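Quick board copy: two proteins, each given as sequence then tokens.
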Amino acid sequence: MSDLEFWGYVLVYGAILTYICWGFVFAIQGLLLLHGRPEAVEWLKKRYSFKVFMRELTVFFPMLLLFHFLLEIVPAMLRIDDAVIRFSISDLIERAEIALKK
């Protein structure tokens, strides 16, 4: 393996792992924001402007859908939790806009 090939692997794996890790954090916080948790609102205010939030929402939208399925729909299917919140991207954007405009 050449040095160039090694650094290519490092960059690709690094990008994939960064997407997964930051996507996990963003998806969990996005779902908490959708549930109206004040901790998520504080997290949002500390780290984002509305423009940056919208960019990350676009990038991590698949992660949001995956975690909504894993944390809301699967427990409902297994009869662990009956309260399933409807995933609405417009509600999430509206809550973020309200939180960031204050």
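And the next:
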Amino acid sequence: MAGDAAGGPPAHDADEAGDPSFEIPAHPERRYPYEGGVEYEGETVFTLTPGADRSSADLRDLVEATLTAGPYRHGDFFDLPMPLYLVRDDETADVFRISVRDGRVRLHVLPATESAGLRAFYDRLVARSDADWRVDCRTTV
């Protein structure tokens, strides 16, 4: 259970109902180097781990079913060794990335991502699965 890089409290503390918090301790900063492209400085990632072991293929199918059910617009990156999606929640207007690897789903915060979109995705994912989920947050600055 990692806190922020400055040693603050973990960002995944549960509320009174036992639901994890998706409070974002720090957003990455976007830079556009002179050489081209885009770079991010800093990172906040929420890792969702199912209580029972599930293969990455099963988790990919669960994530894709959740995204397809909406209210999402999404695209995946085809030339990577793992599923990686750029996601926009049309209800909250939040944009973030989702990756699936090593039996975990990771929600990657972007500069304008807000907690509402992460929480909504988590709630929809949990509703589609039969697993209990643990949520951990890691922030680097």
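Board note added afterward: Helices lie at 56-69, 115-128.
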